[in-house]
Amino acid sequence: MGDWFQTIVDTEATSGEAQGLAANVLDWLIADGFISAERTDCVLGADAGHAPGTRYGEAVEDPDPELVNVWSNGLHVAVGRTVFDAGQGEPSAVTCPHCATEMPLVDEHWSPIEERWARFEDAVGSWAEGHDEPVACPSCDRTAPVHTWRWADDYFAFGHLGFTFWNWPTLRPEFVVDFSRRLGGHRTVLLEGKL
Q: What confidence tens digit (pLDDT) does each residue in 87-96 have?
């Protein structure tokens, strides 16, 4: 069955401002009733999170009255250099930030193309540790840090701040736009995935 998640990642927040931005957004989400103020055991991958609030239904497209009965139904906030991913599956393609050439990373059977993925694997894995390994484009031969490449279906997002909603119905686009505005207008990426 699995657990679904949606993560809003601020790709522009610096390590120095991430904690303050997280606090501001949490204040808004709590004040407007989207999440509860109390932290409880309601998320995966962390000790505690914020359960849905009384007005959570205004943040999603199709509110599910059964969400309150799901154990992993909360919001987890991650502050710190993180590679956020979409969970199951593989990234299907990546696009060079210089020449916009798209490089498929899986074949027509959705099997990884190992020699292409190998170009990125170490750089993706080491980004959370503080490294910005450049990756060379096979088309234009220019290099760029791995976090600047564009990943198909936003499979990866690199940042210092992410908000993961566990098992919530699809977030409303207006809610996601408001989120970005409250993060100082920073560019955000919405990852959707399953564990």
A: 877 789 999 9
